[in-house]
Design a protein that fits this description.
With 178 residues, this protein is of the alpha/beta class. The chain has helices at 16-21, 27-34, 63-75, 84-88, 100-110, 152-163, and strands at residues 4-10, 35-37, 51-57, 60-62, 76-82, 128-133, 143-145. The protein contains six helices and seven strands. It is elongated, with a radius of gyration of 17 Å.
């Protein structure tokens, strides 16, 4: 039987959700028999190809993250938002209480250790969006695995349901990280 293709990306995030994905213990062995990871920080494959499930860690706060999310959506039958940043905006969305110009000025000019700072402007530095967005405010999301990071049991549940052809709705008793 052909393996189910999965891609994963991390956008504005801390990588903790991917660490939780790798923390599913021996289930990773069962999983490796059933799925093939394509573009992912786990494989380091950079290009997109068509997959069944696209998993997104992190929220969307700059132009590059928006493009990556949109491209993954185009290549995926199902998009899973993994973790509180992807589902709700998470800690990065705290900057939504501030003006973007003030955030950039504080980061690049006002910090005590900065000498003659300037706000970078270069094609290699993605432009910040005015706000940080949870993934579903930019692209259609089909299922959610919340948590910061999500409990490995919740990730296991979500992937098992998807592999069985069902859209997962995570039970509340496995939503909290113990
Ligand atoms: S949800 Fe938590 S663990 Fe996952 S990327 Fe955001 S801050 Fe990190």
């Amino acid at each position: 039987m052909a393996k189910v293709k999965i891609a994963t990306v991390w956008l504005e995030s801390c990588a903790g959700c991917h660490m939780s994905l790798l923390d599913v213990d021996e289930f990773i062995i069962d999983l490796s028999k059933l799925v093939e990871f394509r573009r992912s920080p786990i494989t380091d494959i950079k290009g997109f190809d068509d997959v069944v499930v696209g998993i997104i860690e992190g929220c969307i706060g700059n132009e590059e993250e928006k493009e990556v999310a949109e491209e993954l959506r185009q290549h995926s039958q199902i998009i899973m938002a993994l973790g509180d940043c992807a589902c709700f905006g998470g800690v990065c969305a705290m900057r939504n209480t501030l003006d973007k110009a003030d955030v950039l000025k504080r980061a690049y000019i006002d910090t005590p250790s900065t000498y003659k700072g300037k706000i970078p402007k270069s094609p290699g530095v993605p432009e910040l969006l005015n706000k940080v967005y949870p993934v579903n405010q930019i692209i259609k999301v089909d299922c959610y695995i919340p948590g910061c990071p999500p409990e490995p049991e919740a990730i296991k549940y979500g992937l098992t349901e998807l592999l069985a052809g069902r859209i997962p709705v995570v039970p509340s008793n496995i939503m909290r990280f113990d």
